[in-house]
Design brief:
13 strands, alpha/beta, 387 residues, Rossmann fold, seven-stranded parallel β-sheet, single chain, 2 domains, six-stranded parallel β-sheet
Length: 387
């Protein structure tokens, strides 16, 4: 298949440091290429990929001091995708719903993976206005607030099996907190749990500008007193050692987490996860197998001995069974095929003609133009005129 992957521009693909969505897009893109699909990635210019890269901004927006408003850059991204839309069998968007008005007429060969929370009231009338746009949720909990939205599947995230080498006998006895310093991630709970259990805590997290006040006023004072070390952001290569040598990962969230990539990163390292019951947690953590699920700091302290006693080899084995990038890509390919089978027969024939012509003589631009012209003519003359 000829597939376009459309990534947000806030981080590169893959991100240099923190960045869940862009990391998932990278793993998916690389696995699809490995499986033989022709993939084009629309992303920031500092992205690295084995697919065709269409640079839509010179560098990741978060790392560019000259960028103050991300939306014009994303509008230009969508226009680049629109200009090349006929080159692809399927357009896979990871930019929430920004593209809906522009690509409504292409709904039958688009797919949108929603990566953020969907429980905000503003979302509901918007999705109701675009019922033809196919959506993928990254957990069943994420889709629950939108019962009438057009969800076609839930696809859990996955990681390459060789990304993190498991550590079955960690050298250190610390607890780990990895991610972002923010009120909903509750690093304050992590500190309280560590202090109550007497175990050291290492915090590897970024602080966004919007959370600087929270960090300064709430978290920084809690770092005093020993036993808690704030490391800051770490990159992908540092995660294996950081998570692998931890006795356990603390995931004490206080919001409807759509997935929580760090949970499966820890599991890949063989590290058990202690998580608060919210959002996707109960779908990712199998209580008593790869972690413990709790509902309070007191319960977390009580669960700590059983968490540390979990079999790290079993944790890694369950990760391989449930959360590999190969499984993730296979799930998406099934969704792609299902969507394409729903398309009207003339559209499928034109798409196949374009693919054969591009493969035989490389004249992609000429073929894409011809296909687009035929498709537009059929839309005008067909029974759905005026929709």
């Amino acid at each position: 298949m000829r597939i376009a992957q459309v990534a947000p521009l806030f981080e590169s693909v893959p991100p240099r440091l923190y960045g869940g969505t862009e990391r998932v897009v990278y793993f998916l893109t690389e696995e699809l290429v490995r499986q033989g699909h022709k993939v084009t990635l629309f992303a920031s210019g500092d992205s690295i990929t084995s697919a065709e890269l269409v640079p839509c901004t010179p560098r990741a927006l978060r790392l560019d001091p000259d960028v103050h408003d991300p939306f014009p850059h994303h509008m230009l991204l969508l226009d680049k995708v629109r200009q090349r839309a006929e080159d692809f069998d399927l357009l896979h968007f990871h930019v929430d719903y920004l593209h809906f008005p522009l690509f409504r007429t292409h709904a039958g060969r688009t797919l949108t993976t929603l990566h953020g929370r969907q429980d905000l009231a503003d979302h509901m009338p918007f999705y109701a206005h675009f019922p033809e746009m196919p959506l993928v949720s990254i957990s069943n909990a994420q889709r629950a607030p939108l019962p009438r939205a057009n969800f076609v599947a839930t696809v859990y995230h996955g990681l390459p099996l060789d990304l993190h080498k498991p550590t079955f006998e960690p050298r250190c006895g610390y607890l780990a907190f990895l991610g972002r310093i923010s009120p909903e991630k509750r690093p304050d709970r992590a500190i309280a749990i560590a202090r109550e259990t007497g175990l050291p805590l290492k915090i590897a997290a970024k602080v966004d500008k919007s959370d600087e006040t929270y960090f300064r006023d709430v978290i920084a004072p809690m770092l005093d007193g020993g036993g808690v070390e704030f490391i800051g952001e770490i990159n992908e290569s540092q995660k294996t050692e950081f998570l692998g040598n931890a006795a356990g990962l603390l995931f004490p969230i206080d919001w409807p987490e759509p997935f929580g990539l760090v949970m499966i990163e820890a599991m890949a390292c063989g590290t058990p996860v202690l998580a608060f019951r919210s959002g996707s947690v109960a779908e990712i953590v199998e209580d008593g197998i790869n972690g413990r699920i709790v509902e309070s700091v007191e319960e977390a302290v009580q669960a700590m001995p059983s968490l540390l006693a979990l079999d790290r080899r079993a944790i890694r084995a369950r990760f391989e069974e449930r959360f590999s990038a190969t499984r993730m890509a296979a799930d998406y390919v099934k969704v792609y095929q299902k969507l394409l089978r729903r398309r009207p027969a003339p559209e499928r024939q034109l798409s196949a003609l374009a693919a054969r012509s591009v493969s035989s003589n490389g004249r992609a631009g000429h073929v894409a133009t011809a296909v687009a012209t035929q498709h537009e003519t059929k839309q005008i003359e067909g029974p759905h005129r005026g929709r």
